[in-house]
Amino acid sequence: MACRFFVGILGGSFVPCQVWSTGFFDKSVVGTSNAITAGLGNAGGGITYFLMPTIYESFVADQGLKPHVAWRVTFIVPFICIVVTAITMLLVCPDTPTGKWSERHLHVQQNLAGHGISGDIVAAPGTIMDDKHRHSSSGGTSPPASDEEKLQFEAAPRKSSVVGEAEMGEQAMLDTARGEVVQNPTLKEALTVVFSLPTLTTAACYFCTFGAELAINSILGTYYNLNFKLGQKESGNWAAMFGLLNVVFRPIGGLVSDFIFRKTQSVWSKKIWLHSLSIMTGAFLIAIGATNSHHQSTMFGLVAGMAFFLEAANGANYSLVPHVHPHANGIVSGCTGAAGNFGGIIFAIIFRYLPGQYGKTIWIIGVMTMGINALVSWIPPVPKGQIGGR
Length: 390
Hints:
mainly alpha; 15 helices
């Protein structure tokens, strides 16, 4: 039980990874970035299908370990990989593109001052101001900043936009700065974000697509073996392909989402792309379940088609997430990710209560996916009046 608890915490690293990745990239390319990082993470599940049995077999055949010992020793390998990665990230990787996380707002304020816009705009999230910003004009030191205190920089004369920089009015720049800097929300503000319709939309879509991926991953090898009598190892290898396709298909979802956003300059384009992929996912799930094919070429082709739309939809979802309440990106990312895991639980329960009826269960998941996406398709991608994220 304790081991499962800590493995669950490890799975929770997905959301901080997406939030961290979002902080490094502009909204016009963030979908590609998030999709690549998440796609590699999802592909890890496919790699595990191949790698862990191979390591286990080597311990049994080459090291002479008994099976009940070998499977335990096998877990030392991912433990070493995880610890080395975590330590390397702590020592090498920066918090943000501009330095420490606690000083992320200072860079925004300096950029505004460079455009001739005075400070008194972005709230400092605590007493993290540099000493050089605490000195008053008389040379004294001001008291520590409170959570409500505003940062002030001396504004330079207003500059015209440089080549390649978007034309924005002064008020638009101020509003964007306020809305884009991640803040530490109050409980009331956090609940407002959690229960806003755009947050519920990304969560509902991820409930369907990532939830389906988790549930289908867990039974696909058994399903193949039931229909084709391939044996446990070969069935597992074919099932692993479903997860490995994330390396290609999830990034495609984010890449296309960013492309159409740059062409249309509308967040609606990202949302329409997400729903289109999700509804096609549902259609392929229904086809797989309805045919319940016993021909390998037909089944593998349908699963590959379903994998494209499902995994691309996951990538498209986290291309849309950074636009929704950008000042509370961690909350939106967390709610969306949690909904995906919750979907995996719900769909796994359906598989459990329809034992052996894999085709019927997959058909049910397909109907749910199409229905839920149709229900939330009318909701605007960002809240009305939201500052930033557009």
